[in-house]
């Protein structure tokens, strides 16, 4: 497994893709697949079945992993 300079909680800048230019916080790092989950980026709608917890079901927006090469660490809280 490779070591990455980006850790959970770091501020990053998305440098490619639909969310290019966004600055956001890293929620999760997946070292086996070299991916990161970034808050508010690469959102998809997932269908949710009706259950006791969610009686109506419906859709929920969820962040999906993106390649670690698509983000750049930003120093400070800019």
TrEMBL record:
Q: Which SMART domains does UniProt cross-reference here?
A: KOW
Please give the InterPro entries that the UniProt record associates with this protein: KOW, Rib_uL2_dom2, Ribosomal_uL24, Ribosomal_uL24_C, Ribosomal_uL24_CS, Ribosomal_uL24_KOW, Translation_prot_SH3-like_sf
Q: Does the keyword rRNA-binding apply?
A: yes
**Key words, A-Z:** Ribonucleoprotein, Ribosomal protein, RNA-binding, rRNA-binding
Any one GO cellular component localisation term in the record: ribosome
One annotated GO molecular function:
structural constituent of ribosome
Biological process per Gene Ontology, one example term: translation
Where does the record place the KOW domain? 5-32
On subunit structure and binding partners, the annotation says: Part of the 50S ribosomal subunit.
The record describes the protein's role as: One of the proteins that surrounds the polypeptide exit tunnel on the outside of the subunit.
Its family remark reads: Belongs to the universal ribosomal protein uL24 family.
What the entry lists under HAMAP family is as follows: Ribosomal_uL24_B (MF_01326_B)
User: Can you name this protein?
Assistant: Large ribosomal subunit protein uL24
Gene this chain is encoded by: rplX
């Amino acid at each position: 497994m490779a070591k990455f300079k980006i850790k959970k909680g770091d501020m990053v800048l998305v440098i490619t893709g639909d969310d290019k230019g966004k600055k956001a916080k890293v929620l999760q790092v997946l070292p086996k697949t070299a991916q990161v989950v970034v808050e508010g980026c690469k959102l998809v709608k997932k269908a949710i079945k009706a259950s006791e917890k969610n009686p109506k079901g419906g859709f929920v927006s969820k962040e999906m992993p993106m390649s670690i090469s698509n983000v750049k660490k930003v120093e400070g809280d800019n």
